[in-house]
Structures are given as structure tokens and as C-alpha cells.
Backbone:
């Protein structure tokens, strides 16, 4: 079966057409680089996504610090990870790059802060 | 009056990138003026990732991307003031700004315009109906949720398929809201395919093309919107009306460069971009006044904003050293398939990058750059979409100094 994919590995956003047999990729075209093939393979077997959100900060110059994951997680775990992120409350100061939750839900990646928040 | 070599108006990625590059080139008499309390521009609220892959080779969130430049500005000791709004620029480059400590008046040798853009609002597209609370532009909703910790609503409809709107569709969903649909008046999406996939498709949010909101209902708070299909001329089709019950309507209907100040300085604007007409040096119609970033043309990728501002800084450094830049008497002309180009004027003696957007989605096309019928640059594209800014490098060696440059798309 022919299937269309929009690669999200980089801003180029190649549209890739692949011949697929179940979760197996038989052939593919339209990808500018090998990452496109990797992406199609991943989409067929275990789609991965990164997410961003915010956590509460106590005593900070801003009420929130933005966070993201250090690497992508399986798409079907996004809402589980969001639940974990919602539980967190940090104390100012927060430093960009700081680990907020390490190895979140055992998925092998960390939730990290993406903004400096100084004390109020 | 205080004299300064270069005043930079706006401390977003464009302003910061220009400042760092100027400093590296030995131009030290610089001042960045920023209206907000912090540097970084709009990226402070763009917390999703996907920035920096082109510029830094890794994918960062908006605040991290901005922080890279803020840290450099701090480390180099480049002078800046925040909480300071520029209120006037004159043609002879007097800059007036208002701050908590009163008025600031500066005579600059060069001025860099990097004020970014603002969002189109509902007024600009005038939907009939009531004016209840619960209608936000995507950027305002983004600021509420990501900076101020205020949730905007629970049942959401989005009008316009701009990137910020789609990114907010995902953000709102992650925060527990229900996004019913995105409606786009054009027959194609105005945002990037990758955002349709990872912000809408991933969360089962439908995108309806050729649809628009034709009525807003509700007394104090929004209660529902009426959506209609539109025909080829974008006019609502009678009998297709459907009511969606929602407490929030998010508008993602485009960005407009912020150019009131440019006009007061006598800078000529381009009807198409709503930004300044610039030459290959990023110099506006007023010698010594330059523009880059979203104030010049709406970008879809901040990496290109930084690179544009860095090229601008090279020209500003040359202007300060030599007192003027080579005049650009050749026009860049486009056919109907291209909405605009940057720059609009060239000299034919310098390498430059031509930025452009196509007017509608096209497949298997060639974008050809010609001078007197001679091919001087070309980009072959499997698909070209209006959502994406296209950049084509042009080499001076291929150009002459006599003929205008023509941009043609052949499908
Ligand atoms: C709401 C919104 C969301 C966006 N989200 C994304 C996104 O998710 N991804 C993406 O790639 N791009 C996004 N963009 C595009 C984004 O703006 C650019 O990628 C990039 O931030 C442009 O940089 P800039 O420096 O040109 O403008 P900006 O980042 O807008 O910076 C302009 C700066 O100038 C300051 N300023 C303006 N007028 C004055 C004045 N009179 N005096 C002093 N200072 C002034 C402003 O306060 C601001 O700090 C978004 C744009 C908007 C409007």
C-alpha cells in the first residue's frame, strides 16, 4: 500500500511517499536525506514526539518556567508525561538546562528547563 | 544630544544577531533599545522546540534559541536598555525613546529596524456578530498560557491555519482543552505541513479548508460560532452554515510587519510585504537605515531571521567605514506566481540571497532568475507552498550591472 508522510525531522518537511506492507517499508521516495527513511520507519513502528510545556515556579520573577524533553518519547505516552509535568513545582532561581524530572516514567529522557527564571 | 554609531530598535533575535555580529566586526558604539522588560522578542513565549537546526545544528525551544544570543550580548558587554519604547525616528536618524527614566534622544549614524511584527486582529478581517469575551489572537493566547499561566478556555475553535494557531491547538490540547477544529478560508493551509502533522493530525484535530467563521454569538462570553464553506472567490456559500458551541475562538490569520516608526523616518514600504523596500545591503530607501527580521518580511524560521540580520550587520559595518554603500539601481521584478522578493533592488555587483514566497501551492516547478533573458539562478522544486520562505543564493559573477532581475516560476 502507498502511504504519504510529512517528515518532521527538520524544517525542510519533505513529503515522502512509501510503499508499505503492514509495518514494513518496502520502498520510499521524496526524502532529501536518510533521516527521512528513519522517520518513516519510526512512524510505522513506534512514532516518537518531543513535547514542550511549562511548570510552576515559586518566588520567581516569572510565574512559569518553560520545559521540554531531552529527547522524543513514544507518541502514545505524551499525556502520561504531561501528567508528571503538571505535578512539578520549582523554586526560583531556575536555570536553563536544569533537569526538572530525570528519566521521566522510565522512558529514558529527562524533562529540562528551557528558560532562566531569577528570584523575584 | 548623545551621538551613537548604531542604534538597534528591538531586542528580538534579529536585533540581537545584528548586535553580536557588529561587535565581532569591531563596531562597539552600539545601543539596543527594547520595549519589553527582557530581551528575546517573541521567542520568549514560543516554548515548543524546532528552532535552531539550521543556525546551530540542534533543535532548541524558542527561549533557548533567544538565550544563546542574550548570553552572547551579556558576555560581550554590548550595551542595551529595556523597558524603553522608541516613539520616533527622523530621516536624519534622530531616535526618540520613552522610558521610566524619561525621554531618551539620540543622534545615530545608522539605525537598524528590528521591531518584528504584530498579529492581524479580528477587526482587520471583520466577522459580523457580537463582541463577547473569549476571542483571542493566537499570540495573545500563547502569551497568556506560556508566560502568565492563564488558561484561555475549554472548548476551542481556531480560525486560520497559521503556524502559531496550529501550535496553540496542540498546546491547548496538552493543557486539557478540547480543540474542535481549525478552519481556513483558503483552499490550502497557510502554515507548514510539519505543523499540520504534529499539532493537528497527532491529536485528531480536523483542518477544514475553504471554510470560515461567518458569525460570532454570545453575550458576555463567547457561546458559539457559525462556520460556512466558501466558494472560489472566498465568499460564504448560503446553506452551508454550521454552529459550533465553544467558549474560545483563536485567530491565526497572519502577521503584519510593525512599521509605523519606519514611516515616520520616511522609509518607503512595499505594498506586498508591508515592510521596507530594501536593497542587497538590507538598506531602506533612507541611507543609513537598515531593516531585517519580521519587520522586513514575515519569516517562518527564526534561523533565517538571525542570518538575515547578520548579513545586514556586515553592510552596516561597511557603511560606517565608508560613509555610503554601492547604489542599487536595478529592480527585482516578479511574475504573478511570486508574492514578493527581498531585496527589491540590487546593484548587480554583489553576491546576495533572494528571499521569496510563491502565491499558491505549486508542483514540479522551476523558479528562474533572469537578466536580459540570461539565466543567473534557478531553484527546481518538487513542491512549493506559500507557507515556506524560499531562499536562492545569487552569485555576482553571473550578474551584469545594467538589466533588472526578473523572477519567473515555470510549472
Ligand atoms: C505571536 C508570534 C508567535 C510566533 N511564533 C513563532 C514560532 O513558533 N516559530 C517561529 O519560527 N517563528 C515564530 N514567530 C515568528 C517570529 O516572530 C520570528 O521567528 C522571530 O521571532 C522574529 O524575530 P524578530 O527579531 O524579527 O522579531 P521579534 O521577536 O518580534 O522581536 C522584535 C522586538 O522588538 C521590540 N520592539 C518593537 N517595537 C519596538 C519599539 N518601538 N521600541 C523598542 N522595541 C520595540 C519588541 O518588543 C520585540 O522584543 C512568531 C511570531 C509571533 C508574532
Residues:
Amino acid at each position: 500500500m502507498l502511504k504519504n508522510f510529512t517528515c518532521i525531522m527538520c524544517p525542510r518537511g519533505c513529503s515522502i511517499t512509501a510503499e508499505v506492507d503492514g509495518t514494513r517499508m518496502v520502498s520510499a521516495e521524496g526524502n532529501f536525506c536518510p533521516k527521512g527513511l528513519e522517520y518513516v520507519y519510526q512512524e510505522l513502528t513506534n512514532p516518537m514526539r518531543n513535547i514542550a510545556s511549562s511548570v510552576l515556579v515559586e518566588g520567581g520573577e516569572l510565574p512559569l518556567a518553560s520545559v521540554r524533553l531531552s529527547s522524543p518519547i513514544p507518541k502514545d505516552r505524551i499525556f502520561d508525561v504531561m501528567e508528571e509535568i503538571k505535578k512539578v513545582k520549582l523554586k526560583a532561581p531556575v536555570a536553563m538546562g536544569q533537569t526538572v524530572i530525570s528519566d521521566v516514567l522510565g522512558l529514558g529522557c529527562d524533562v529540562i528547563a528551557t528558560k532562566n527564571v531569577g528570584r523575584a | 544630544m548623545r551621538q551613537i554609531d548604531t542604534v538597534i530598535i528591538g531586542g528580538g533575535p534579529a536585533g540581537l544577531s545584528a548586535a553580536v555580529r557588529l561587535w565581532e566586526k569591531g563596531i562597539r558604539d552600539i545601543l539596543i533599545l527594547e520595549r519589553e522588560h527582557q530581551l528575546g522578542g517573541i521567542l520568549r513565549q514560543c516554548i515548543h522546540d524546532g528552532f535552531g537546526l539550521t543556525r546551530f545544528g540542534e533543535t532548541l525551544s524558542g527561549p533557548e534559541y533567544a538565550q544563546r544570543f542574550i548570553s552572547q550580548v551579556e558576555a560581550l558587554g554590548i550595551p542595551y536598555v529595556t523597558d524603553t519604547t522608541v516613539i520616533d525616528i527622523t530621516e536624519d536618524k534622530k531616535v526618540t525613546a520613552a522610558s521610566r527614566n524619561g525621554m531618551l534622544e539620540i543622534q545615530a549614524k545608522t539605525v537598524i529596524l528590528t521591531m518584528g511584527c504584530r498579529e492581524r486582529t479580528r477587526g482587520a478581517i471583520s466577522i459580523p456578530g457580537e463582541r463577547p469575551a473569549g476571542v483571542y489572537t493566537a499570540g495573545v493566547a500563547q502569551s497568556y498560557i506560556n508566560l502568565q499561566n492563564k488558561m484561555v478556555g475549554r472548548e476551542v475553535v481556531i480560525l486560520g491555519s497559521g503556524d502559531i494557531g496550529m501550535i496553540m491547538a496542540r498546546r491547548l490540547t496538552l493543557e486539557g482543552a478540547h480543540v474542535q477544529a481549525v478552519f481556513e478560508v483558503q483552499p490550502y493551509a497557510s502554515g507548514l505541513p510539519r505543523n499540520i502533522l504534529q499539532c493537528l493530525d497527532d491529536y485528531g484535530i480536523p483542518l477544514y479548508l475553504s471554510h470560515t467563521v461567518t458569525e460570532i454569538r454570545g453575550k458576555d462570553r463567547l457561546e458559539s460560532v457559525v462556520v460556512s464553506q466558501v466558494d472560489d472567490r472566498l465568499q460564504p456559500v448560503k446553506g452551508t452554515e454550521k454552529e459550533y458551541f465553544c467558549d474560545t475562538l483563536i485567530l491565526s490569520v497572519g502577521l503584519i510587519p510593525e512599521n509605523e516608526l519606519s514611516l515616520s523616518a520616511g522609509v518607503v514600504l512595499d505594498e506586498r510585504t508591508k515592510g521596507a523596500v530594501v536593497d542587497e545591503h538590507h538598506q531602506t530607501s533612507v541611507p543609513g537605515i537598515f531593516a531585517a527580521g519580521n519587520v522586513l518580511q514575515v519569516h517562518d524560521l527564526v534561523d533565517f531571521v538571525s542570518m538575515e540580520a547578520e548579513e545586514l550587520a556586515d553592510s552596516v559595518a561597511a557603511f560606517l567605514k565608508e560613509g555610503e554603500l554601492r547604489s542599487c539601481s536595478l529592480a527585482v521584478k516578479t511574475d504573478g506566481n511570486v508574492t514578493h522578493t527581498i531585496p527589491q533592488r540590487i546593484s548587480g555587483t554583489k553576491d546576495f540571497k533572494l528571499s521569496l514566497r510563491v502565491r499558491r501551492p505549486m508542483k514540479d516547478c522551476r523558479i528562474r532568475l533572469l537578466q536580459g533573458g540570461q539565466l543567473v539562478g534557478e531553484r527546481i522544486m518538487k513542491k512549493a507552498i506559500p507557507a515556506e520562505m524560499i531562499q536562492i543564493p545569487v552569485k555576482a559573477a553571473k550578474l551584469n550591472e545594467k538589466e533588472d532581475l526578473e523572477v519567473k516560476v515555470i510549472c
User: Anything to note?
Assistant: The radius of gyration of chain A is 18 Å. The beta strands of chain A are 2-6, 15-21, 24-29, 48-49, 52-58, 64-69, 73-74, 89-91, 99-101, 111-113. Chain A has a mean pLDDT of 95.
